[in-house]
User: What shape does this take?
Amino acid sequence: DNYDKMCKWAANYIAAKINNHKKGLLLNRPFVLGLPTGSSPIGVYKELVRMNKAGEVSFENVVTFNMDEYLGLPREHDQSYWYFMHDNFFNHLVDMKPENINILNGMTDDPEGECARYEEKIALYGGIDLFMGGIGVDGHIAFNEPFTSLASRTGVRNLTTDTRIVNSRFFGNDPEAVPAQALSVGVGTVTDSKEVLILINGHNKAKALAETVEGSVSHKWTCSALQMHNGAIIACDEAACDEL
Ligand code: GLP
Assistant: This one.
């Protein structure tokens, strides 16, 4: 019905997956969780933190990989995704191990190498079990803007002017202050995950949701790649369904 219910549903889904993994046969292998930034997941993070503090889910055996990071922003910058993730999530968990947190380094002097190593590390863990994501109004997942290959891997991305304008709300409403480039997992990196859980809320995402589930599979709406994935889940609210 609404944002709150969407977030609680998603948090419960993720916690159940982590708990089931622990009970299963793959005890030696951590649960590998892909994570997004943005305003959409904030409620999910709050609920997961509550559950973690209440002893309902443990992150002791969870390894995380974040979707993306702005190129050129240091960790300490309050709009870096490293800062966002620690401020909204990791710092509040009682048993998350810092060494299990993976976030692309936006200050690297070797962006291509940084991205290649990220892909290698994901592979080393045996791939991502569940990738949670958000979506841009233009349908981008991570920073895979329209016309990014649906087979793309982790790499450097140029942000569209539209995305810089949308994200300028966090940069003093100045689109020029938003970094022009980011490091981002590829569409292929996301769809290689066993499951993909995308959060879509609010009327401003209604067109993107309609394109995700009813449009053609096309690099014009990179979110449409999810149609080819048999473990893709969309958690949404009613307002986002306006154009279905
Ligand atoms: C940014 C992020 C995306 C995110 C999108 C939507 O562009 N790179 O991963 O999905 O914003 O953000 P929000 O949830 O704030 O609408």
Remarks:
- The chain has a mean pLDDT of 96.
